[in-house]
Amino acid sequence: MKILSKFQVLSVGTISLSLLFSLAFASENIGSQQVLDLVQRGEILTVAEIQRRHVELQNVRWLDIELEKEHGLWIYEFKVVDEQGTVIKYILNAKDAEFIEQEHKDD
């Protein structure tokens, strides 16, 4: 079973982020409190902490962030545009920020 979370991200200046998110578990909505609970229980890191740990996620334009649970593992999928205009998708373990996969999407 897969839980999806889509974040609409706006970046202003270097990295000022405004995150609007809505989570869905099957047909049931999961609110921001559940996400905060995951962070407080140590099941996931915050997006800010993930960004702090990975220079690849700094000084880029953010397109999309997803939080998913796959095979019992919480993962973040980040889609960003780098300084050269390349769209890159990073998949990271949401608990420890370890890279799982990186994919370049050229136009």
State the main characteristics.
107 residues; mainly beta
Description of the structure:
- This protein is mainly β and 107 residues long.
- It has one domain.
- It is 15% helix and 52% strand.
- The protein has 2 helices and 7 strands; from the N terminus they run E-E-E-H-H-E-E-E-E.
- The chain has a 7-stranded antiparallel beta sheet with strand order 3-2-1-4-5-6-7.
- A hairpin with a 3-residue loop joins strand 1 and strand 2.
- The longest helix has 9 residues.
- The chain is elongated and about 40 Å long.
- The chain starts with a strand and ends with a strand.
- The N terminus is likely disordered.
Brief description of this entry?
With 107 residues, the protein is mainly β. The protein has helices at 32-40, 47-53, and strands at 3-12, 16-25, 28-30, 61-70, 73-81, 87-93, 99-105. Helices cover 15% and strands 52% of the residues.
How many domains? The number is 1
Spatial extent as radius of gyration: 14 Å
Nearest-integer average pLDDT:
75
- Distinct helical segment count: 2
Strand fraction equals over 45%
Instruction: Give the overall silhouette.
Output: elongated
Low-confidence stretches: 1-29
The rounded distance between the terminal residues' Cα atoms is 32 Å
Helix content range of the residues, please? Answer: 10-25%
Structural class comes to mainly beta
Give the biggest beta sheet. Answer: 7 strands, antiparallel
What order do the helices and strands follow?
EEEHHEEEE
Strand line-up across the major sheet: 3-2-1-4-5-6-7
Count all strands and give the number.
7
